[in-house]
Amino acid sequence: MTSTSCVSAKLYAKKEIPRKGIAVVVVMEPTRSKQWELKARKNEKFAGLLREIRKEAGMGQKELARKLKRPQPYVSKLENGRAFITLVEFEEYSFAIGVNPVKALSRLYT
Fold first, then answer.
1. DSSP per residue over 42-108, as a string?
2. Which residue of 15, 21, 56, 102 lies most exposed, with the fewest beta carbons within 10 A?
3. pTM over 0.90
4. Residue 26 forms beta bridges with which residues?
């Protein structure tokens, strides 16, 4: 069996799916390690967005931390991808720096 995918087989596991009229179709699915790698890249991009919008607002980490009523290391961890943030916390983060959260998030997808 051959695969039309040009992605390394080490990154993806084969899953064979029988189809009517076709003996076997091979579908390449990401392995767990590849799934985590993809999630990590997305988290890094999101963390970069947090840092970028704060800097564009001309605000330092300490000032933002005061507005959020959190310690400054919390803001640092968010912006370095070492801590996760909920949707509610993201809204608070955005409003604290005077940015519309929807517009901020849309920058990840443009």
1. HHHHHHHHHHHHHHHTT--HHHHHHHHTS-HHHHHHHHTTSS---HHHHHHHHHHHT--HHHHHHGG
2. 21
3. no
4. 16
Report the alpha-carbon distance of residue 5 to residue 18 in Å, rounded: 18
- The tally of domains found in the chain comes to 1
- CA distances to 24, 54, 59, 65, 102 from 47, rounded to whole Å, are 42, 11, 16, 16, 16
**Tokens encoding 55:** 């800097």
pLDDT in tens, 21-64: 655 556 677 888 888 898 889 999 999 999 999 999 999 999 99
Is residue 51 assigned to a domain? Answer: yes
CA angle 35, 28, 39 (to 5 degrees): 15
| Token duo for residue 47 | 């963390």
Structure tokens, 29: 């699915």
Domain-embedded: residue 81: yes
